[in-house]
Amino acid sequence: MSIRFTTKAHRGMAALAVAAGLALGVAGCGGGGDDKKPEASASESKETGSNPSAQEGQAEEPLAELKGSNGLLLQVTSAERDAGGFVTVNGNLKNDGDKSLPIPSALSGNETEIIKNGRSLGGATLVDSEGKKRYYVLRDTDGRPLTTTGFSTIKAGESLTVFMQFPSPPSDNVSLQLPTFASGTIQISG
């Protein structure tokens, strides 16, 4: 075969692939003539009240609710132990107040290594009363806390999904402490 014929064949194949991709894209976006609006998706749902949606993979009732300053509320939705020896605590940080609030910088804790990485929940600890030990938020090899980071304000009525990862204590009943918040007892599963 000549180079000219091969080049034309490759162009034709490329054009056919682009046309097929466009046809599939148009068919996928077509909607099928159904003008009804879909129900609100899980990502669009707004929480009103204190009960997270079970459909979003969270418990019906929070494990604990920790009240903070100026109407901030941390609802702990899960605390799971994994096989690697870690505990991941998930929750929602909610502004129950009537105006936007800056997230207190004290939540990051007071350790220089964590503070230099920006706002986080790096000041959180788990306290095992039975073992008389305190477990601090884990850090990666660069000193960044293994928590939700990069937030500065939260609007009135909004909530922010958060997580914190700790070394796994031997006890299943521990107290979660977060600076500027009341502490709460949580049950670790897994």
UniProtKB/TrEMBL annotation:
This is Secreted protein. Keywords: Signal. It comes from Streptomyces prasinosporus. Residues 31-61 are annotated as: Disordered. Residues 1-19 form the signal peptide. PROSITE patterns: PROKAR_LIPOPROTEIN. Residues 33-47 have a biased composition (Basic and acidic residues). It comes from the Bacteria.
